[in-house]
Design a protein that fits this description.
Layout (H helix, E strand, L loop, with lengths): L1 H25 L14 E4 L2 E4 L4 E7 L2 E6 L5 H10 L6 E3 L4 E4 L5 H38 L5 H34 L2
Helix pairs in contact: 1-3, 1-4, 3-4
Amino acid sequence: MISDIIDQMKVKCQKSIDSVKKEFSHVRTGRANTSMLDDIRVEYYDQQMPINQLATMSVPEPRVILISPWDVGSVSAIDKAIQKANLGLNPNSDGKFIRLVFPELTEDRRKEFVKIIHSKTEEGRVAVRNLRRDANEHAKKLMKDHEISEDDEKRALDEIQKITDDIISKMNHLQETKEKEILEV
């Protein structure tokens, strides 16, 4: 019973970390990264499709993403979807390829990105704390219903706290790494 609670918490905490990582990938640094385009959907033949199903994306230079559509007819649809996504990038199209050039980040813009990273990390921490609260309540309910002993409850609460501390420290490490990446000139 307790192992089920802890296993469920570990799975949900891993999802929280994955969510924070995904949010971080959308915050751009001075370098081009194709993962920024993962959530952009392109309307093509009356269907919403991700860009990576319509084109090959590469990073030929540190601040350029090159999008090579498999069907030349999809160039304008991809261009439109990128502009609609409001990434702060202006796609340059030559009819065959689309180039996304990342401008140099100003110091103020870097600081804004750091604030965004801090808020995303805090959202992740709050989610993990909520998971801890739910797991603790579940363990206390089992003890109250006499399904486990007080010692088992104490061990479960300690294990839940240990998992929470571990996950939060991982999130803090991710935040520090991303912050250094953003502030790097």
